[in-house]
Amino acid sequence: MTTTSIEEDISRIWWKLTARGERQVGEQAAARKAGSRGKQDPRALVEARRRRAESVPARSPLARAGKNLHAVPVERVTARRAAGGLTRNGYAILGVSLIMFLFGMVMIFSASSGLALHTYGSSYYFLLRQSVWFAVGLVALAALAYTDYHRVAEFSPVLVVISLAALAAVPFFGTEAFGSKRSIIVGPIVVQPSEIAKMALVLFAVYIYSRREDRMDSWREVIMPVLLVTAIACLLIIAEPDLGTMLVVAISVFAVLFLAGAPLRKLAVLATLGCGATAVFIFTSAYRKARFLAFLDPWSAPREGGFHIIQSMIALGSGNISGLGLGMSRQKFFYLPNAHTDFIFSIIGEEAGLIGTLSVLALFSAFIYLGVRTARGAPDRLGRLLAMGITCMLGVQALINMGAATGVLPITGITLPFFSYGGSSLVICMCLAGILINVSRREGGANASYDGRKERERGDMRRRNRRPSPSPARPGGGARIA
Predict the structure, then answer these.
(1) Position 446 in a domain
(2) Which of 120 and 179 is assigned the larger pLDDT?
(3) Is residue 261 part of a domain?
(4) pTM of this prediction?
């Protein structure tokens, strides 16, 4: 028997012993992790198999020959398994989004039935149109949920160009409603370009900042390109005029910049400039100035600038705890303007009371929590920024809408995501939910492999630092040779 064959036999025996121990430990860990679910977790089993595979010593024959059949590329396995279907987080995001939409559909029908019957001769007019837009949005959600979000982010520059061109066309081809031009009619479809611009600018900011992590302190290379595009879009939006959408866009891009790691000194400068520009936009327009002064004292102009706030407060106060009942709102009958769009939250408070408004807050809180959870589990920087950017944008828009309805913030004329009537708003919200689900489908791929590597490193360190146990004495005397 040659020396090489002896080394191979010893190596094979050692590998079997350690592999058996690793296998038992891995199977026990997988069983514990499966726990209450009553079935084995595939990721835990894959991790156990990989630990067993890496227990093969570097000098073993299998390792030298490259025939380690137990080695499993767990990064690919876990990422592929996570991307193959919806995770629990993805199902939760989809469920919360659908609940908000269905809740909104009921309230849209209740708030708009009188207006629809008076104007169009059918109380189902707005309900049917919103249902059609929901079908379009559901298709968009499914498509974006199963399209790699890296490709979606790469398409953002093209989407920005399209949205800027559409915004520039609004003053010339837009339709005027309530004193402003915000929509363009394309055949039977009414499109609001500012809604598309919101999503496009957030995706563009995330795409740029995720690629230049090491240069986030550079004004010229990183910060200014995104801010320049955002400033152009904000000027086009404020020219409609639409101050509320402009604020949502500016705050969302600022939040992405903060989350991307921009220096606080530069953020302070941008925040100061943004607040100053907003003040200029408010006080250089007689209409916006009157709205702002009415926000400070609504009863100073109860039939002019303060009319919306007063009627909204009456609606919320009439609801009390449990509300007047579904369909029993009085403010929707031409007292509260835009009851099915900007002030849907007030109608919810009137018909469902405090219970209904708290339910809306709970749904948005759950959506924000799921968005943050998705960001924490995202496999890369792009996914984290994308999830947080989408969550911030929808959260800020909901906060501004509910703040205006309750009199906490000035009236800006933006919709409540998922609840208010509006085709462009609903489709964009569904698209954003689809992208968020897309990120959640890939959560755990890179993180699982990273956690597995850290656990193996700790295990290797413990084995290296373990003191050898004393060997039992041989029958013939002396110590046993290891």
Answers:
(1) no
(2) 120
(3) yes
(4) 0.74
